[in-house]
Amino acid sequence: MKRFIFLSLLVLNFSYGQTNNVKITILSTMVADYDYLGEWGFAALVESDGNKILFDTGFRENTVLENAASLNIDLSMVEHVLLSHNHSDHTGGLKTLRKKLMILNPNAMKYVHVGKGIFMDRWSNKINRNKFKTYKEELENLGIEFIYHEKPEEIFPNVWTTGIVPRNHNEKNWSGYREMVIDGKKIEDNIPEDQSLIINTNKGLVLVSGCGHAGIVNTLEYASKLFGNTSDIYTAIGGFHLFNKNDNDIDWTAKYMRKYKVKYFLGAHCTGINAVYSIREKNKMNRSDCAVAAVGSYFDYEKGMYAGRITN
After folding, report:
1. What range defines the domain where residue 231 resides?
2. What is the mean pLDDT of residues 43-49?
3. Which of 11, 130, 185, 239 lies deepest, with the highest CB count within 10 Å?
4. CB 275 within 8 Å of CB 291
5. In angstroms, how far is CA 286 from the centroid of its own chain?
6. Is 112 helix (H, G, I), strand (E, B) or coil?
7. Run of H or E residues at 80
8. Of the candidates 104, 103, 50, 113, which has an alpha carbon nearest to the alpha carbon of residue 81?
9. CA distance 83 to 94
């Protein structure tokens, strides 16, 4: 009985408050037109009700800065960052962003939200591959404050981190060539700290993902349950690590996307071009609501989705 009451209160808490003011702009991904820079990485600026948070920071140190400048986006007043996981293609730009923008605003890129476990060692061929851990102290010396999340938490009104996503379905959305040591035992590195962002809007939930190492279906399912078990996923945007999936896996994923009524799908980074096209076909979507993301692509609550001129 106590467990039931707790879960009911949790749902009520998550269901409270919605927004009709959201814009998400892609600042790092592989595809780029005009004078933007493409790379194997991901970053997106999330804006909601006057609040801004940078979701991931790209791979190369200057990519996000240069693309933001080309898009006439001022990042100097962005004080919060959410890192989906430890990999360099999502964390590589943080140090430079902090160094260059703190001159304009001492709090720029200062508050960095991370999943619990992001600084754990990751071993491959006896080498610790967690490069992000190696410059943790340097980042802290620059004034960065790490905020650790394990459970879902509201960062801004209606803007939530998922925290650690339960992996009820065996999607295995990671490469599997690194190991972790927990309690003296070696286990496969499944990127346990992976987290996504959810914005609760009047039209449904907006999901932003860096790589989706927890699994896109696991994350869709978890997000829906957190907000009342009937919540539709209005938009899914970002990287979802589907590029190496076979046809059966993509078909299964598309089925669950239909179940959660995903209306807009903007696949960036590791989602994979063919995977996006396959999902579009299987779910009878079109270019205006299911497309490959490019630098400068965006989702706007009022305007819908803009994929870019060269993506389709």
Report:
1. 20-306
2. 98
3. 239
4. no
5. 23
6. strand
7. strand 80-82
8. 113
9. 9
Mean pLDDT over 92-108 rounds to 98
Confidence of residue 77 (pLDDT cuts 50, 70, 90): very high
Asked whether residue 162 is assigned to any structural domain, the reply reads: yes
pTM attached to this predicted model: 0.93
> Do 78 and 67 form a contact (C-beta atoms < 8 A)?
no
Tokens of 307: 């994929």
State the Cα–Cα distance between residues 229 and 227, nearest whole angstrom.
6
> Which spans in 47-201 are helix H?
63-70, 88-91, 94-101, 131-134, 136-141
Question: Which whole number is the average pLDDT over 205-222?
Answer: 96
| In a domain? residue 275 | yes
Spatial CB neighbours of 24, under 8 Å, sequence gap ≥ 6: 44, 45, 46, 47, 55, 206, 208, 237, 298, 299
Q: 94-101 vs 63-70: helix axis angle to the nearest 10?
A: 60
Is the model's pLDDT at 237 over the cut of 90? yes
Average pLDDT, the chain: 91
State the Cα–Cα distance between residues 66 and 69, nearest whole angstrom.
5
**CATH number of the domain residue 232 falls in:** 3.60.15.10
Describe the chain by its helix, strand, coil percentages, rounded to 5. 25, 25, 45
How many domains are contained in the chain?
Answer: 1
Are the C-beta atoms of residues 212 and 239 closer than 8 Å to each other? yes
Is residue 55 within 8 Å of 44, Cβ to Cβ? yes
Q: Is residue 3 part of a domain?
A: no
Is the CB of residue 29 less than 8 Å from the CB of residue 59? no
At residue 285, does pLDDT exceed 50? yes
What does the pLDDT look like over 145-168, one tens digit per residue?
A: 999 999 999 999 999 999 999 999
**3-class secondary structure, 94:** helix
* Cα(24)–Cα(146) distance, integer angstroms: 23
Calpha distance 53→48 (Å, rounded): 9
